[in-house]
Write a structure and sequence with these properties.
Its EC number is 3.1.3.62, 3.1.3.80. It comes from Psylliodes chrysocephalus. It is an enzyme of class 3 (hydrolase). Keywords: Cell membrane, Disulfide bond, Glycoprotein, Hydrolase, Membrane, Signal. By secondary structure, the chain is an alpha/beta fold. The chain has one domain: Phosphoglycerate mutase-like (Rossmann fold, 3-Layer(aba) Sandwich), CATH 3.40.50.1240. 45% of the residues lie in helices and 10% in strands. It has 19 helices and 7 strands. α2 crosses α10, α8 packs antiparallel against α12 and α9 runs antiparallel to α12. The structure holds 2-acetamido-2-deoxy-beta-D-glucopyranose (2 copies).
Length: 439
């Protein structure tokens, strides 16, 4: 009770006495602004209800999922372990905290904060990630009991993951959610490929690697934004809030704080990361935009080759759903952010009328391309084919929510023939080798 009261009071103080943008994050929604480090629980649809359509029966499902919440990559663990303790010391030794933004409670948390992750644990699936996959499977099974048999059979199910611990473990916990942990140990998986043509097609696309992924010019909008007025104000703001003189914390520090805030929020449902308290909601939105920009120009609508090359995955989906074979009934692939985003863009989902640029932060406040929502850990896209009399129709789910594809803006179920017509290029003109050739 006391905690609640304190929270309400501080929120009221903060909102009405000061500008709300100056407030620290306690009591403010910031969890859905953590870009690609957002935990799945923030965006998932937690309903267990069956999805039924009158006169239709589900026949098959194709699912592409990003692995669950993981550890940071090697270099980021090193940075977090070396720079953040320095920043912590700077704040605690400064003697000017607490102040009206950083309160005693935040300082206590910061005091207790430590980070001693072994860099060898980089990119590993975490406990939260295991749970994300487990409950995703449970909910999908209860929505589509006709498809997700509780008894495992190697013919009804096809699972596949990429060559990585996080996707392998994600696949395992997904099957544990379907069949229980004991049976999950016996599930058969094909050997993972380093460059899987369906699960991670972009590893095989030289042109994309050359023109986009490894081309600094492809990311110029990020650089424009990161040296622009919004980011400058954010850096100034953070230093000011911490009573630090002359912008001691620089862009990389503020970005690092945002990463730690994001990861700790993803890892721990119950406790707050002290690093989130350092950032106001406005700061977080600016940092989120910088990441949205990066993924927009790397894995999204920024360059045509990026989303065009997803046709093999799209074709795999259509071929499976329209095939007359009754088995397998379920295909589930465990992969990465890069695949999910390129697939979403290939489908034409979450497309804004203008490009995201380094200069249009203000007008993009309501943008559709928000990685926090569309590319959280565990993000997934699923297609279910229903037999409706003599017709086949497709239901599309993203994060377990029904979404409508461009060919069917007015109905949840889309005629398979309309999908085929609308995306005919992806089916008939999918010459991956030639589109990915470096000119
Ligand atoms: C979750 O999905 C169901 C369909 O299964 C839908 O009716 C419901 O509106 C969704 N919930 C949210 C919060 O979007
Ligand atoms: C499962 O099926 C695949 C073909 O889809 C086959 O290659 C594999 O050997 C089977 N595994 C077992 C354990 O039966």
């Amino acid at each position: 009770m006391q905690v609640t009261l304190e929270l309400i009071l501080s929120v009221l103080m903060c909102c009405f006495v000061r500008f709300s943008s100056q407030c620290s994050n306690y009591g403010y929604p910031f969890e859905n602004h953590l870009a690609t480090i957002t935990p799945y629980r923030i965006v998932s649809n937690k309903s267990f209800e069956r999805i039924n359509f009158e006169g239709c029966t589900p026949k098959k499902i194709w699912l592409m999922a990003r692995h669950g919440t993981r550890n940071p990559k090697y270099s980021l663990i090193e940075q977090m372990g070396s720079r953040l303790p320095q920043i912590k010391k700077l704040l605690l030794d400064g003697g000017s905290l607490p102040n009206e933004f950083i309160r005693n409670r935040d300082l206590d948390l910061l005091n207790k904060w430590k980070f001693n992750m072994d860099p060898d644990k980089h990119n590993k699936l975490t406990h939260e990630g295991e749970e994300e996959m487990l409950v995703l499977a449970e909910r999908m099974q209860s929505r589509f009991p006709q498809l997700f048999d509780e008894v495992y059979s190697n013919t009804s199910y096809k699972f596949k993951y990429t060559h990585s611990q996080r996707t392998q473990k994600s696949a395992y916990y997904f099957t544990a959610g379907l069949f229980g942990k004991a049976t999950a140990k016996d599930v058969w998986f094909p050997d993972p490929l380093k460059k899987d043509p369906i699960l991670r097609f972009y590893k095989l696309c030289d042109r994309w690697n050359f023109e986009v992924k490894k081309n600094p010019a492809a990311q110029q909008e990020v650089r424009i934004f990161e040296s622009g007025p919004e980011m400058e104000a954010t850096i100034r703001d953070v230093n000011k809030r911490l009573n630090l003189k002359e912008n001691i914390l620089e862009l990389d520090d503020v970005k690092l704080i945002y990463e730690m805030c994001s990861f700790e929020t993803a890892w721990n449902k119950k406790s707050k990361s002290p690093w989130c308290a350092v950032l106001s909601q406005d700061n977080i939105k600016v940092l989120e935009y910088a990441k949205d920009l990066r993924y927009y120009w790397q894995d999204g609508y920024g360059h045509e080759i990026t989303y065009k090359q997803a046709c093999p995955a799209f074709r795999d989906m259509i071929n499976f759903l329209q095939s007359k074979n009754r088995f397998p009934r379920v295909i589930a692939y465990f992969t990465h952010s890069g695949t999910i985003l390129k697939l979403l863009a290939h489908l034409g989902l979450y497309k804004d009328s203008e490009h995201l640029t380094g200069k249009n932060y203000d007008s993009m406040g309501d943008r559709q391309w928000r990685t926090s929502l569309i590319d959280a850990f565990g993000s997934n896209v699923a297609f279910v084919v229903y037999g409706c009399g003599s017709e086949d129709k497709i239901l599309t789910l993203h994060q377990e929510n029904i979404v409508r594809l461009p060919p069917c803006p007015d109905t949840d179920l889309c005629d398979l023939s309309l999908v085929r017509d609308y995306y005919f290029q992806s089916l008939d003109k999918c010459d991956f080798t030639s589109m990915c050739r470096v000119h």
